[in-house]
Amino acid sequence: MKNPREAIINRRDLLPLLFSNPDEYLFVAGLAGAAKDAAAWTREADNLIALGGAMGGAIAMGLGMALTATHRKIAVITGDGELLMNAGVLATVASAAPENLTIVCIDNGRHGETGGQLGHTSKRTNLAVLAEGSGLGSIMTVSTPEELPAAREFLADGNAPKFLWARVQPGPPADYKRNWNLVDCRLRFRRANAIKL
Fold first, then answer.
1. Based on the structure, what is the number of domains in the chain?
2. Cα angle at 21 between 72 and 127, to 5 degrees?
């Protein structure tokens, strides 16, 4: 495995290059950088619910949505730190095996919310191996822009649940001021998508 510090993807370019038609999905974004990146990319569209104060909860929420809204495509945008806070949820996803769930982990190898300290994935932790060991069968890793067209195809095919480990350069997420009225965000998402949250 390459060292994640060798990743050359700019995180701000990632999401638009992965999802050719974002309107086809309901998105759940985890904390901090992943939520800022998703909110900036979608301009906080009605098909995005971005979490705050719920570290480790994005994949679990996405799983619940996938199991109850089986007619919709669900995509979780999370970060390496948040995923590792609740890594056991990958085993639950594998066991439940929803055919409409995609997980994208944006991994900069840093703990961005607490000062940019090196995270586990900057050292020895391999999230693709973690996902495989949890029982997920559809897994891909990218660390260069040249790999992103194949990643877009990977996300578009019907073999789910799937896990994409996107190793990006260290650096700040999108500079976007989110709506932090989380009740308002939840109600907006529910009204627009007829999903109970």
1. 1
2. 75
Which range of residues forms the domain containing residue 171? Answer: 4-193
Whole-angstrom distance, CA of residue 75 vs CA of residue 46: 14
Neighbouring-strand partners of residue 167: 107
CB 36 within 8 A of CB 178: yes
State the residue for tokens 């029982």: 135
Q: Per-residue pLDDT tens for 31-60?
A: 788 999 999 999 999 999 998 878 889 999
Q: Please check whether residue 128 is in contact with residue 89, taking contact to mean a CB–CB distance below 8 angstroms.
A: no
Tokens describing residue 74: 């669900």
pLDDT, tens digit (0-9, with 9 covering 90-100), for 148-187: 999 999 999 878 899 999 999 988 888 888 888 888 888 8
Q: Is 38 exposed, middle or buried (0-12, 13-18, 19+ CB in 10 A)?
A: buried
Q: CB count, 10 Å around CB of 153? A: 11
> CA 52, 55, 60, 66 torsion: positive or negative?
positive
